[in-house]
């Protein structure tokens, strides 16, 4: 007699994370950005909302070095701090060089 409970012979099928793997930075290509982010967290009692620019810079570095899949920064929650393109009014007010 088996002591294991059988719930309809359903087997667990593991699947990869939605955003893929997140490889380690073995060559330290983004170490400077990571350290700035970690220092900011420490200086702000680990309130990550105070370190969004450092987080954005770190993720941009990881994407540039193929350490994570390229994603639009808006999808990663940085829409509000993105460099917005100049409006037509601002372009017209800008002096020509």
From TrEMBL:
Q: What subcellular compartments does it reside in? A: Cytoplasm
| Record family assignment | Belongs to the COX19 family.
Start and end residues of each CHCH domain: 30-64
Please give the chief subcellular localization of this protein: cytoplasm
Q: Which PROSITE patterns match?
A: CHCH
GO cellular component entries? mitochondrial intermembrane space
What is the scientific name of the source organism?
Cynoglossus semilaevis (Tongue sole)
* Keywords per UniProt: Cytoplasm, Disulfide bond
| Name listed for the protein in its UniProt record | Cytochrome c oxidase assembly protein COX19
The GO annotation for biological process reads: mitochondrial respiratory chain complex IV assembly
**Where are the stretches annotated Disordered?**
1-20
Name the InterPro entries on file: CHCH, COX19, Cys_alpha_HP_mot_SF
From which domain of life does this come? Eukaryota
């Amino acid at each position: 007699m088996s002591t294991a409970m059988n719930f309809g012979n359903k087997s667990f099928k593991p699947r990869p994370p939605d955003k893929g793997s997140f490889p380690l930075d073995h060559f330290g290509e983004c170490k400077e950005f990571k350290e700035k982010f970690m220092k900011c967290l420490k200086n702000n009692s680990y309130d990550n909302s105070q370190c969004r620019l450092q987080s954005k810079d770190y993720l941009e570095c990881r994407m540039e070095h193929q350490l994570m899949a390229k994603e639009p920064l808006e999808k990663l929650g940085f829409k509000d701090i993105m460099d917005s393109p100049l409006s037509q009014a601002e372009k017209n007010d800008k002096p020509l060089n």
